[in-house]
Amino acid sequence: MGQQQSKDELLYQQVNYGNVEGIKALARDGAGLEWIDKECKTPLIVACMNPELYNVAKTLIELGANVNAYRPGRHGGTPLHHAVKRGLESTVKLLLSNGANALLMNDDCQTPLEVARGKGYINVVHAIESHICLFSGWLREFYGPGFLEILVPQLLSRNVWVVIYPTGSRNPTKPFRLELAIYPSLQVLQS
Questions:
Q1: Count of H helices and E strands in the chain?
Q2: pTM of the predicted structure, to 2 decimals
């Protein structure tokens, strides 16, 4: 005789099938949202790994799934890390707007922002920066010999877009550091 599956495991399977109504029915019936498979993935992490499961991720969050659940290991991280790795901008924005912590590090000591930069997902980088920034705006950058700055500043300066944001501390007992990102134009962020 086969082993009967728990409601939690059935809900996890419904996530894989993309069955929002099945997930809602099982949750109403008492199924937990934090069941972990043999690879340490929760239902929300699974949903955040697939662009076709955006509505499933949204449903799980609405039902109370932990947006900061952590999957340990080399390819681990939070649901946000997993969405970022795949460049899922809509899912990233959904997670951020529902309380996902963009400063948590994975086991490779990378925040979701660092993962997005490493993958080259400019739109995801911008989404995260916009969410966590302390300041963003235009600044004038001066360059060249100092005496020429005084005579013709318009020839030796340009506007640059800057973003100041906190970054995860490598040591949890120490405060966050601040970083400054400099972009030559807004088009770089909107590409």
A1: 10, 3
A2: 0.84
